[in-house]
Amino acid sequence: MSGSVKQQLFAPIVEIDRFADGLYRFALNAPFVAQHCAPGQFVNVKVAHENYPLLRRPLSIHDSDGIRRIDLVFRVVGEGTAILAERRVGDELDLIGPLGSPFRIIKDKRALLAGGGVGIPPIHFLFREIQRRELPHFVICGMRNKDEAALAGAIPYETEHYELCTDDGSLGRKGLAIDPLIEQLNAVDPASVAVYCCGPEPMLRAVIRLCNERGVECQVSFEQQMACGFGACIGCSIETKKGYQRVCTEGPVFSASDFE
Ligand SMILES: Cc1cc2nc3c(=O)[nH]c(=O)nc-3n(C[C@H](O)[C@H](O)[C@H](O)COP(=O)(O)OP(=O)(O)OC[C@H]3O[C@@H](n4cnc5c(N)ncnc54)[C@H](O)[C@@H]3O)c2cc1C
Question: Of 93, 114, 92, nearest to 103 (Cα)?
């Protein structure tokens, strides 16, 4: 798998699953992306057949079979995702990918994965890769309620390697994903673990602070709004200790140590 190649392609939708109010999983036949993507990367999708809306919408790769199929999971939040949700099996999606820099898997450290809401897709793909490599891991997923459980995809529920949190307590533990992450970190030597996180920005900022204070190696994936998706427009830049960096190109995955 590589982080340096991309293509524009037309990927037929082979399966659609609407698993909660406004949450969709699309399976696409996209061999080039499936064969070249790595966890943390995304595709930039033209949501409509027409030229409006003009800007593509970035979506993380939730899964890849490494051969031909990729899965995307998205929440309808506005105009673009609402149009996307109207697509049907057999439609072709115009997309560019794989884009962005992936997670770097630290082989000699136990992986602590934490995903929140629609930040779970890249964490799911990373889990699949870590599981494939048989690396030690613990996965935490936080979501609104039990109806959203399918966000966690193939991550097995109720094993000792997994904790699911819901805002309303309707499934798993009631509360935020950061709480089990703190417990995990309290129980280990900080040098023995690496944290990988994607979720809403307040979650990312809290995890960055937590890991930097404890000297824990940590990578976070930002889901900043963006325009071009491949570094030309710099519209998605965020401030880091190294200066402004483009989420679409230097990111979306950054080291927590790049932030205060
Ligand atoms: C690298 C990357 C990966 C992403 N992966 C996923 C994914 O796997 N699944 C998923 O559901 N979403 C993901 N997103 C977010 C997704 O791209 C946006 O939700 C989508 O572009 C919104 O388009 P829209 O036209 O529906 O909403 P708009 O009409 O553009 O916006 C609707 C509302 O949502 C807010 N909004 C839009 N985009 C974002 C954002 N990125 N962060 C916070 N608020 C936003 C707007 O400010 C506005 O209030 C990802 C974003 C990035 C940058």
Answer: 114
Compute the distance from residue 192 Cα to the ligand 1 centre, in Å.
Answer: 34
CA atoms within 13 A on the CB side of 128: 20
pTM (predicted TM-score): 0.95
CATH superfamily name and code, 7-99: Translation factors (2.40.30.10)
Q: How far, in Å, are 208, 223, 231 from residue 201 at the CA level? A: 10, 8, 21
pLDDT at 158: 66
What fold is seen in the domain 110-258?
Rossmann fold (3.40.50)
Residues in contact with ligand 1 by the CB-under-6-Å rule are 42, 57-60, 73-75, 77-81, 100, 118, 121, 223-226, 247, 252
Residue-range domain boundaries for the chain: 7-99, 110-258
More confident position, 233 or 147:
147
